[in-house]
Amino acid sequence: MQPPAGSQVSRVPAQRPPSDHLAPPSPAPAPERPRRRLRTVLTVVTSVVVALCLGGVAAGFVLYNRAAAPDRSAPDVVVDNYLRAFLVDRNDTRANLFTCEGNGDRSAVSGLRSEIEQREANFGVVVRVSWGPLTRTETSEGESVATTLTISGSANGQPRSSRHEDWVFEVVEGKEGWRVCSGQKAG
User: Fold this and answer.
1) N or C: at which end does the chain have fewer Cβ atoms within 10 angstroms?
2) Could you tell me which residues come within 8 angstroms of residue 5 by beta carbon, excluding any fewer than 6 positions away?
3) 39: part of which helix (H) or strand (E)?
4) Stated pTM of the model
5) CA 67 to CA 72: how far, in whole Å?
6) What are the pLDDT digits (tens) for 36-60?
7) What is d(CA 39, CA 42) in angstroms, rounded to the nearest whole number?
């Protein structure tokens, strides 16, 4: 039915229910995060760790080589190292790193070490060898290094004997540095 003429009723379209009364829209599946980021982070972290480990290994190798390599840079240095290895540490393998190959006469130094070992065995003492300044002199074949060896014996921490001997060592320079070729008492 129609509203009477002059009425104040207007035509209002049919009202719809508010949208909050409607059924919720079905949720869209959440997009999965790409796993590329995680892989990239793991790859970078692994690469850094591997690089640090390799750098550490390389540094260790270089430092070990420097520490283990015999110092044959100068005649007095090689004589000092030879005396320490042969008479103090009594390490033939280490002492050979400082000597001439094949040629040379180090029998007097070997005799001194034998004498020291016999005294220790026969008398129950400890024999120590030390030396003073090493003096270099040029020779026709290389250099000679002179020093005074001090040979001291002690028992139970008490000094027993001490003597001083002047020695001369002949050294030559080769491809790998200086080497001790002979050693004898100065006479």
Assistant:
1) N
2) none
3) helix 36-68
4) 0.65
5) 13
6) 888 888 888 899 999 898 888 888 8
7) 5
